[in-house]
Amino acid sequence: REVARTEKPETEAVKAEAQEPEAQEEALGLGALILRIHHAAKKGDSTSAAGWFRRFIRAGGEPTTATFNSLIHSAAKTGNWKVARKWFRKMASARLDPDVITFNSLMNAEAQRGNVQ
Questions:
Q1: Nearest to residue 99, comparing CAs of 72, 74, 81?
Q2: CA-CA distance, 27 to 30, in Å (whole number)?
Q3: Comparing C-alpha atoms, which of 50, 12, 15 is closest to residue 33?
Q4: DSSP-derived secondary structure letter, 117
Q5: What is the predicted pLDDT for the residue at 7?
Q6: CA 19 to chain centre
Q7: What are the φ and ψ backbone dihedral angles of 101, each rounded to 5 degrees?
Q8: 4 in a domain, yes or no?
């Protein structure tokens, strides 16, 4: 009797990497895309974080306050206050409420540019 084989998650991830971007998003799933946003943001790579965010949205994801906090934090970490403010405005447009983390990140962005009052 033959036993049905199931592919390991690692194999599926490798296949996803070899596919076109649109297929990758579907294969990765929204959870994996969120993790990529947060990982890039934590490294301070706001360009990659923004790219992963766009893929997340195209894949049908709905951002949360935490998602925007990662993007704001990433921009703030690199001193890019204009981008941090842009993400804050997009967060407001999405009708999401900022929290303490949001405001701390915005204050850090302003402080890095020397705008402390």
A1: 72
A2: 9
A3: 50
A4: -
A5: 47
A6: 21
A7: -65, -40
A8: no
Predicted local confidence at residue 103, as pLDDT: 93
Provide the angle, in degrees to the nearest 10, between the axes of the packed helices 21-43 and 65-77: 60
Secondary structure letter of residue 19 according to DSSP: S
Can you give the residue range of the structural domain that contains 22? Answer: 9-112
- Reading the block at residue 109, the tokens are 């962005």
pLDDT at 27: 60
For residue 47, CA distances in Å to 1, 37, 72, 96 come to 52, 10, 12, 22
Residue 3 in domain: no
Residue 78's Cα: distance from chain center in Å?
16
Q: Please report, as a single letter, which amino acid is at residue 114.
A: G
Taking a C-beta distance cutoff of 8 angstroms, is the pair 38, 5 a contact?
no
User: Tokens 């297929």 correspond to what residue?
Assistant: 23
- Give the residue among 50, 28, 25 at the shortest CA–CA distance from 38: 50
Query: In terms of Cα–Cα distance, which of 33, 28, 34 is closest to 9?
Result: 28
Residue 2 lies in a domain: no
d(C-alpha 54, C-alpha 94), whole Å: 14
The pTM of the full predicted model, rounded to 2 decimals, is: 0.72
